[in-house]
Design brief:
CATH class of the largest domain: Alpha Beta
GO molecular function: succinate-semialdehyde dehydrogenase (NAD+) activity
Structural class: alpha/beta
Family: Belongs to the aldehyde dehydrogenase family.
CATH architecture of the largest domain: 3-Layer(aba) Sandwich
Radius of gyration: 23 Å
Distance between the termini: 71 Å
Largest sheet: 7 strands, mixed
CATH superfamily of the largest domain: Aldehyde Dehydrogenase, Chain A, domain 1
Protein name: Succinate-semialdehyde dehydrogenase (NADP(+))
Keywords: Oxidoreductase
Length: about 475
């Protein structure tokens, strides 16, 4: 792999063996390393180690926990270039995007290092003079997480930082395509002074085996998952036997709406930023575009012009905007959606040229209708289907016509319309005249089958805490 300045960040590499996991660069197919896997017994042992470590960590003062987390934050930022290089080589996204993700991921560590000092309880006015009532917040215990390959650093820190700040221990199973970033984060946490056993990474060729253990092990009190709705449903059912608390950030099918009073140039910029970041492999990226008939032709012309200048290639190369798709199955699924859309009557207005390896040309589809498969399913690739609309009521019905409810976007300069439509959209997040909405200071999460719970913001740490009610009687 590309030279890494901080050698400790790649110290977890091992020689290839039958039980090691091979990691390759999706842009080139080059094998960049091997990492050891853990057996089921070793994963059980790691969970027990997490349980033991959490008992002491829960007694550590909030101020001391904050100091350690802030040191971790600083080490992540000090090693931003190395972490970005690791991420690009195992995940494929352009280097500038990887560097941005490192900073974004680090922001959650910094944010929750401070929020951990503000986990206030309440004093409750008592119904009787001889009682005093109050609540305190305590860590839930061992928290486990299963994280995806598309944001291999941010999806870990967004969960680990609030868990650790709350006083929990944290054990994560990263995606098998992108475990190197997880191990690098854990190494920096160790260097920051995080006690042993509090942040652990486990991998196995069988993601199902690890997930099953996380769900059924009674020592784990909380499971956080980011991934598909299909898998999320299964994990929730499995967690029912031990009545675990869960938070699920699942699939998305984000509408991107451009009204007739919108600033079209800004809408085009926001659409490109939202749709093509990480080659469209994000859960919040625009999935279907609803453009008002009055500005449809103008938007299409400017949007296609912007799409055509995007550069495809190896994320390590300068000037690349679109990296590879994560694997062949994902590429096949995207190409199949394009083919079916064309069969159902859509036209390719830009892109669509077959490319070698794991690359897909940014593609724009026009003459798209609401009932097409590409509108009803999450694309997770660099494909933009454009749909005309004429009336706000029609638009709202089409936008909400999905089982998903994660992110949505609208462009308008009419404040009345903005309020009305934003309130009517059945999505957990609404970007208004803005295509990039994620930030550590605001809650991230969806409604309907896009999940439960919130990450980030002041709400994020509550996902890892329990409220305990204390009733003092016989007070004279």
């Amino acid at each position: 792999m590309r030279e890494i300045t901080n050698k400790s960040l790649v110290s977890f590499f091992c020689k290839p063996s039958e039980i090691s996991l091979e990691i390759s660069n999706p842009a080139t197919g080059e094998v960049i390393g091997h990492i050891p896997t853990q057996s089921e017994a070793e994963i059980k042992s790691a969970i027990e180690k997490s349980h033991t470590a959490q008992q002491s960590w829960a007694k550590t003062t909030a101020k001391e926990k904050s100091k350690i987390l802030l040191r971790w934050y600083q080490l992540v930022m000090d090693n931003q270039a190395d972490l970005a290089s690791i991420m690009t080589q195992e995940q494929g996204k352009p280097l500038v995007e990887s560097a941005g993700e490192v900073a974004y991921g680090a922001s959650f560590i910094e944010w929750f290092a401070e929020e951990g000092k503000r986990t206030y309880g309440d004093v409750i006015p008592a119904p009787a003079g001889d009682r005093r009532l109050l609540t305190i917040k305590q860590p839930i215990g061992v928290a486990a997480a299963i994280t995806p390959w598309n944001f291999p650093i941010a999806m870990i820190t967004r969960k680990a930082a609030p868990a650790l700040a709350a006083g929990c221990s944290f054990i994560v199973k990263p995606a098998n395509q992108t475990p190197l970033s997880a191990y690098a984060l854990a190494e920096l946490a160790k260097q920051a002074g995080l006690p042993e056993g509090l942040l652990q990474v486990v991998v196995n060729h069988s993601s199902k085996m690890v997930g099953d253990e996380f769900c059924r092990n009674p020592l784990i009190r909380k499971l956080s998952f980011t991934g598909s709705t299909v898998v999320g449903r299964q994990l929730m059912m499995q967690c029912a036997d031990t009545v675990k608390r869960t938070s699920m950030e699942l699939g998305g099918n984000a509408p991107f709406i451009v009204f007739d009073d919108a600033d079209v140039d800004r809408a085009v910029q926001g659409a490109i930023a939202s749709k093509f970041r990480n080659a469209g492999q994000t859960c919040v990226c625009a999935n279907r575009f609803y453009i008002h008939d009055a500005v449809y032709d103008e938007f299409v012309e400017k949007f296609i012009a912007g799409v055509k200048v995007l550069k495809i290639g190896n994320g390590l190369d300068a000037g690349v905007n679109i990296g590879p798709i994560i694997d062949q199955n994902a590429k096949n699924n995207i190409n199949d959606l394009i083919r079916r859309a064309v069969d159902q009557g859509a036209k390719i207005a830009a892109g669509g040229t077959p490319l070698d390896e794991l690359f897909i040309e940014p593609t724009v589809l026009i003459d798209v209708s609401q009932d097409m498969d590409i509108v009803q399913q999450e694309i997770f690739g660099p494909v933009a289907p454009l749909i005309r609309f004429r009336h706000d009521e029609e638009l709202i019905a089409m936008a909400n016509d999905t089982i998903y409810g994660l992110a949505s976007y609208l462009y308008s300069n009419d404040i009345n319309r903005i309020w009305t439509v934003a309130e009517a959209l059945e999505f957990g997040m609404v970007g208004i005249n803005e295509g990039i909405i994620s930030t550590e200071v605001a809650p991230f999460g969806g409604v309907k089958q896009s999940g439960i719970g919130r990450e980030g913001g002041k709400q994020g740490i509550d996902e890892y805490m329990v409220v305990k009610y204390l009733c003092f009687g016989n007070i004279n």
